[in-house]
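Much of what follows relies on a compact textual record of a protein's fold. A record is reproduced here so that you can trace the correspondence yourselves:
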Amino acid sequence: MLYIYVIGNALVPSKQTNESKPSSTAMPHGADRALDNVDSQLAFDASHSRWTYHRRLCQTIAIVASVVSACNALALWLLFDSAFGAVFDLAFCATHLLAFYWINSEKYTVSAYWTMLLTALQVSAGVVLFVGASTGFQFYLLCLPAVVYLLLPREPNWRKTALVIVGFSMFVVAEQVHIAAYRVELSNTAERILYFLNVIFVVIINYLAIKYFSDDSKSAYQEQKELVLSDSLTGLSNRRFVVRYANKLLALCERYHHPLSIIMLDIDNFKNVNDLHGHLAGDNALLLVADCLRDQLRSADIAARYGGEEFIILLPETGRSAANNIAEQLRQALEQSVLVIEGKKITITASFGVSHYPPGEACSVHELIKDADDALYRAKNAGKNQVVSSDSRTQNNN
């Protein structure tokens, strides 16, 4: 029955966490610290989700194993008139039900160890006492390493190694020890058929186990990628991603002499929104800005939350004039949007700073972002809700 455990793990798809939970409070103004805190929370959520998945999987396995044990007991009693064999399998059926109870009692690790050890013992003793090594059932013990690493991913390596060694020892015992007193009568043809079927099943099990590990690794990689490169609250890219992308984009622009512009925007009076209406209103304001950026920007543009209430936009193939126009369109669209909190209508505005990379000139991403940031703060000082370009020209204010 050991094969049930690996097949169950391999056939149930890995649970991926593509959705991020919104935070109930606004992020602090320190961008790096904020992103690290959110990434840590997301990592915990993803880990907890994966652990819940393994727990539910082990519950299913324990129930299936108990049903198979009960069926084996009936077969030994009714087909082979082996009362001892029936009692033997019924006892293991009870242990699998006990493991299921332990899982429900939040004792996953204990139940996983219990399940694997007793299932290995059931297979080994069943071969020695009832069917013999010629049927090939002992080969399922060779699947124990995969089962151990599937069900106990958090356990220390020395414990998992010890469990694998115990399983291999039981395999040796099943191969070498034969007790004829309780052996059921099987024809040579039946033994050969069982032997080849079991070998085929073991090969399939190991293939499925490898596939599971591969899919699980891809899922974990995708989760980590999402944690590193996206903002949990707004769903936009985060500071890490946009800086990395901007460096590559700027290198292409320098090589082929193409224009590139950057917009920095900061929500006006954001602290007042939090203080007067609560942090939930602040979160909703951030979401409103993110939705506005998605609606207004082109598919080639990259918008990201830079930290706190500050956002950054990369505009490839966009010159100074076009970038200023895009910033002004965003300013107007955001000003016309209304945020409703507990029946109160709140107008959200933002100040914009625009910088531009002129083709053929030496420049760095850090310099472009600093120019846009300086222009942003000039817009703040000039009365807010404005677009200021790094050449000190101001467009449209209130």
Remarks:
- Strands lie at 237-238, 260-267, 302-307, 310-316, 338-341, 344-347, 350-357, 387-389, 394-395.
- The two ends are 74 Å apart (CA to CA).
- Residues 1-46, 392-398 have pLDDT under 50 and may be disordered.
- The chain has twelve helices and nine strands.
